[in-house]
Design brief:
It contains 12 helices and no strands. By secondary structure, the protein is mostly helical. It has one domain: Hypothetical protein af1432. Helix 3 runs antiparallel to helix 4 and helix 4 crosses helix 8. The longest helix has 23 residues. It starts with a helix and ends with a helix.
Length: about 200
C-alpha cells in the first residue's frame, strides 16, 4: 500500500471522530458534542494556554499532543467517567495500530505517552485544555439552566493543575456563553439608535 493510501485511511479514521458522540452528556441530561468537536476545543485551549506560557513551553509539541490526545477513540469509543468504572480500553494499542509502519509513528506514540504520564508542562497544558474545553461546554449548559451543570463544573475545576488554567477557568465562568456576539449586537443597536 502506498504512503498516500495509508494517509487516506488515517484521514477516514480521524473523520470518524466527527460521528462518535461524547457519552457524558447523556448523564448531564442536556448538550451534545462529538469527539472531533471536543478535540478542536482542546487544541484551541492548548493554543491559548501556550500563549500564556510563551517562552516556557514547546507550543508545537503541545499542539500535536492535543491533536492526538483522543485519536484512539476512533477505535475504542468514548468512555465517560461512569463507563470507566466498568470498562477499560487499550488506547495505546489502538493508536499504535492506527499509525503502525508510518514514519511518524514513534513521534505520535511518544507524544501520547507523554500526555498520559502528565509530567511535562506541555502534558499539563493539554490535560488542563481538555478540562477547560469541558468547562466551556458546562458553562454554556449552566447558562441555559441545566441544574446539574454547576456540580460538574465544580468537579472539573478540581481537576485543573496549573494556576494559569485555574485563572482562565474563572474568567470562563464569569463570562456569559453568548457574550461574544450578544454584546456586539446590543452595541450596534445602541449606536444605530443614537444616530
Amino acid at each position: 500500500m502506498s504512503f498516500k493510501h495509508r494517509l487516506a485511511k488515517l484521514l477516514f479514521e480521524g473523520a470518524l471522530l466527527k460521528r462518535i458522540e461524547r457519552t457524558g452528556y447523556s448523564f448531564l441530561g442536556t448538550g451534545r458534542e462529538d469527539v472531533a468537536g471536543h478535540s478542536f476545543g482542546v487544541i484551541l485551549c492548548t493554543f491559548f494556554l501556550c500563549k500564556i506560557f510563551q517562552g516556557k513551553v514547546n507550543e508545537d509539541k503541545a499542539l500535536k499532543m492535543a491533536l492526538f490526545h483522543d485519536f484512539p477513540e476512533a477505535r475504542t469509543g468514548d468512555f465517560n467517567a461512569v463507563n470507566k468504572l466498568y470498562n477499560s480500553s487499550d488506547e495505546k494499542k489502538a493508536l499504535k495500530e492506527a499509525f503502525s509502519g508510518l514514519p511518524f509513528e514513534e513521534e505520535v506514540l511518544i507524544l501520547f505517552e507523554e500526555y498520559r504520564n502528565g509530567e511535562t508542562l506541555e502534558a499539563k497544558i493539554v490535560h488542563d485544555a481538555d478540562t477547560l474545553d469541558l468547562i466551556v461546554q458546562l458553562k454554556e449548559q449552566r447558562d441555559l439552566n441545566n441544574p446539574f451543570a454547576e456540580r460538574w463544573i465544580n468537579y472539573a475545576r478540581r481537576r485543573l493543575l496549573l494556576n494559569e488554567s485555574k485563572a482562565l477557568a474563572s474568567a470562563i465562568l464569569e463570562t456569559e456563553w453568548c457574550a461574544w456576539w450578544l454584546e456586539r449586537l446590543l452595541q450596534e443597536r445602541n449606536e444605530q439608535g443614537s444616530s
